[in-house]
Amino acid sequence: MNYDGVTDEIAKGLIELKERIARAKIPSSKIDETLNIATWNVREFGKKPRTKAALFYIAEILSQFDLIGLVELRDNLADLRKVIDILGPEWRAVYSDAMLDPGGNRERVAYLFDRRAVTFNGLAAEAQPPRVKQGTEYLSKISWWRSPYMGSFSSGNFDFVCLTTHIRWGDSEANRLIELDALAQWVADKAAEPTAEDKDIIVMGDFNIPSETSDLFKAITSRGLMVPDKLLKADLGSNLERNKRYDQILHRPIYDESFCNAGGVVDFYQGDYQKLFPAMKSKQAFTYQMSDHLPLWMQINTDTDLQQLEQLIRG
């Protein structure tokens, strides 16, 4: 982390934030053995400039992980670049283009990663719904308001594709249900492609799913996507009140053992915003400096040598 320009007040806030992060009990990752990944909706990141304190706090949280799928990133990337400068020279970003219409909300998806732990393998693309021929054109029957964004990565001998999305809120859950069901089918079809880049697929982001008992959750998990065991906790809310599970990390693993490590949320709020921003007047103002979502994270076991050898023996 580059702490150049940190004031005494920001330094005190960073110490408080580090204590809050420590309560999440995120285990350290180990090169060629484990990988810490996260998804975080940083509220309207780039719409209005963040304060210097907020940029350092956001960078501090991001630095706990090796790869982060970032949603609600806006078209202006100035603050993202400042955060990357704070994180240091080993950090990189791959991001989608902004969707400029009202449905797209001028949003992007980005992957931030520490290249000491993660290698970008070259694939970066927006997922598109299947097309069918209508007359002389090939058209999709449905629309994703904000196209899911995927990237291929590797860590050690673990190759994987991440797909990160921000599902519509909309006027009703019914339209959200259609979008989630179509996404689940798209991932299943992608995994079945003979020439697919990698079979390990991690799907994450803000799904606007209120709970794991809702029909929306049943839709996204209806085609083989699963929530890792460590994230199957009823009290694992990802909003500031910790009572909604809008954010998800799901997977289609080659080896189940890859997804059996730790996971949780980082509660940077903990019911008190003024220790981080002493002059701040409201919780709502806090959400526009930090976020109204908490990062959801998990640790992946990237050392799959034993599983690969056992698979060879089984033929």
Q: Give the overall average pLDDT.
A: 92
Shape: globular
Which strand order do you get reading across the main beta sheet? 3-4-2-1-13-12
Please provide the ordered H/E string of secondary-structure elements.
HEHEHEEEEEEEHEHEEHEH
Structure description:
The protein is of the alpha+beta class. It has a single domain, classed as 4-Layer Sandwich (Deoxyribonuclease I, Chain A). It contains seven helices and 13 strands. A hairpin with a 2-residue loop joins strand 8 and strand 9 (158-166). Helix 1 packs parallel to helix 2 (52-62). It is globular and about 65 Å long.
Helix-strand blueprint:
Elements: H1 8-22, E1 34-45, H2 52-62, E2 67-74, H3 78-87, E3 91-95, E4 107-114, E5 119-126, E6 131-134, E7 137-140, E8 149-155, E9 158-166, H4 173-192, E10 201-206, H5 215-220, E11 247-252, E12 263-265, H6 283-289, E13 296-301, H7 305-314
Parallel strand pairs: 1-2, 9-10
Antiparallel strand pairs: 1-13, 2-4, 3-4, 5-8, 6-7, 8-9, 10-11, 12-13
Helix pairs in contact: 1-2, 2-3
